[in-house]
Write a structure and sequence with these properties.
Order of helices and strands of chain A: HHHHHHH
Structural class of chain A: mainly alpha
Number of helices of chain A: 7
Number of strands of chain B: 3
Strand content of chain B: 5-15%
Helix content of chain B: 55-70%
Distance between the termini of chain B: 67 Å
Largest sheet of chain A: none
Oligomer: heterodimer
Distance between the termini of chain A: 54 Å
Number of helices of chain B: 11
Shape of chain B: elongated
Strand content of chain A: under 5%
């Protein structure tokens, strides 16, 4: 399902993930100056994901671990460029979206492999939940005042 | 004066939602702009596809309702409106200047349709590689991604429903990747190519936005978006399954 794990392969995959993420940045009409930041966000997520799966983690667990640095980086770029975090998160998340899970769920359903179908379906759902959890955890960490002052987070109350 | 300001504030919120901003961001942007522009008694309620706002003026209550039925992601415009609200809050822009800046943000150009289609195709090829494909699978994923993007554009202009569009795009990808099998001979793995092309169609936006809405306690909007994500995923699965079924029944392609 994945490329065999080699150090050189990791470099290639990192590059491919950057290009893939930038493609989404183009599709979502992100400004040109943010392309590289978007690409790096997605590629770091993918790199951590393949490292985790190579270390023997299941796809949902690897997704959760990968979503943490991915969202952290998106937040960093959002503050550094004074841009909405959505810009980086929306593009960068795509490599981790369980497209393969959707495919294999449909495929096993068709083959009449009920057990595999159920297993893949649940795994796909788990990956989606892991992704959600990763984003939620990192987005909810409050930042120190000196940092968050630079971040647009809505009106001051009162 | 106040109704012009209210109009500007609500239009800024509409621009955010229309172009893929989160619900809480639209709400925050509108509240911050309303306060900065001195709109009295401003209240606003935002959903994924609607804005309800009211304000007070000398003449009585003002209200504004906006319906946003379609979202076309344009992150450049979201960023521009975000920057606009910062400048209004910092007191750099008065009402006419803010109106001009909003018009400018809304008129930000899109990348050409050719570039979008190419991006979809290259993205598919990259994912074909990332999910284990060799040169044959990568080339096939590129072609399938290209075809899927053209189909999305065609159906989008024709006003075909989202459900049908997603099923048709997934079916087209699968059909192309299966049809390419004789071309490449033994060793060609259709699943890698299909997954590559499918990645471009996955509901990543709806999933991410739904999560962001839920984190910010916009439960209703979050549920709408997560349900959308689930629906799209189901449509893609349907498209893949139907094509495999048809190929198996009509042409005897092994499952």
């Amino acid at each position: 399902m994945m490329q065999p794990f080699t150090p050189l392969g990791c470099v290639w995959q990192f590059g491919a993930a950057i290009v893939a993420t930038i493609c989404f940045a183009v599709a979502f009409q992100a400004p040109r100056r943010h392309f590289l930041s978007c690409g790096l966000t997605g590629a770091v997520g993918w790199l951590v994901y393949i490292l985790c799966t190579a270390a023997g983690l299941t796809p949902p667990a690897a997704t959760l671990v990968a979503a943490l640095p991915l969202t952290g980086l998106a937040r960093f770029f959002a503050i550094a460029h004074k841009a909405p975090i959505t810009l980086f998160l929306l593009c960068g998340i795509f490599p981790l979206v369980p497209g393969a899970g959707i495919y294999y769920t449909a495929y096993y359903l068709l083959q009449g492999e009920q057990a595999l179908f159920a297993a893949k379906g649940v795994e796909t759902l788990k990956v989606a939940v892991a992704l959600a959890l990763g984003i939620a955890i990192v987005c909810s960490i409050p930042l120190p005042r000196s940092v968050s002052r630079h971040q647009y987070r809505g009106p001051k109350k009162g | 004066m106040s109704d012009r300001a209210l109009e500007l504030v609500v239009e800024a919120g509409r621009t955010m939602l229309e172009n893929g901003g989160e619900v809480f961001r639209a709400q925050d942007t509108m509240e911050i702009m309303a306060r900065s522009l001195g709109v009295a008694g401003f209240h606003v309620y935002v959903l994924t596809n609607g804005i309800f706002a009211s304000a007070e003026s000398e003449g009585g209550e003002l209200s504004a309702v906006r319906h946003i039925p379609r979202v076309r992601i344009h992150l450049g415009r979201v960023e521009a409106v975000n920057a606009l609200s910062r400048r209004v809050a910092a007191g750099e822009l008065d009402l006419p200047a803010a109106e001009a800046a909003l018009a400018e943000a809304r008129a930000l150009p899109e990348y050409g349709p050719r570039l979008s289609v190419l991006a979809g195709a290259v993205g598919s090829a990259c994912f074909g590689y990332l999910f284990g494909g060799g040169p044959a699978e990568i080339a096939t994923a590129f072609a399938a991604g290209l075809a899927a993007m053209l189909l999305l554009g065609l159906f989008g202009r024709g006003g075909v429903s989202k459900v049908v569009t997603d099923i048709a795009a997934a079916a087209l990808c699968t059909a192309l990747c299966l049809a390419a099998a004789p071309l490449w001979g033994a060793g060609y793995q259709p699943p890698h190519a299909i997954i590559g092309a499918l990645m471009v169609l996955t509901p990543g936006v709806a999933l991410t936005m739904g999560i962001r809405d839920l984190i910010n306690a916009d439960y209703l909007s979050g549920t709408i978006r997560l349900f959308d994500a689930l629906l799209v995923a189901g449509c893609l699965a349907c498209g893949v399954a139907l094509t495999y079924l048809a190929a198996n029944t009509l042409l005897g392609v092994p499952l």
